[in-house]
Amino acid sequence: MTTFLTVAVVVIVALIAVGLHRVWRGPTIFDRLVAIALVSVNSVAVLVIFGFLFGRATFFLDIALVYALLTFLLPIALGRYFEFRENEEDAE
What we know:
Layout: H1 2-25, H2 29-53, H3 57-91
């Protein structure tokens, strides 16, 4: 079971790297926001798997839950901010 979880962590970390590349090179701000959400979801998955690997599932699940709630709000807030900012620039 630990081999499976270790391989899962490696795959998810590779997905995080792909998402960070999209954050860095994204053509638009909204592509970058979607990539931030992708990295956040994958980070939560890594935290949960680490909890099972280290035998401290409840501790890591609590951290993952708080992190998931915070990262759920970040792309929404940034998207609304940039949408509002683009609408202001169009009005001028």
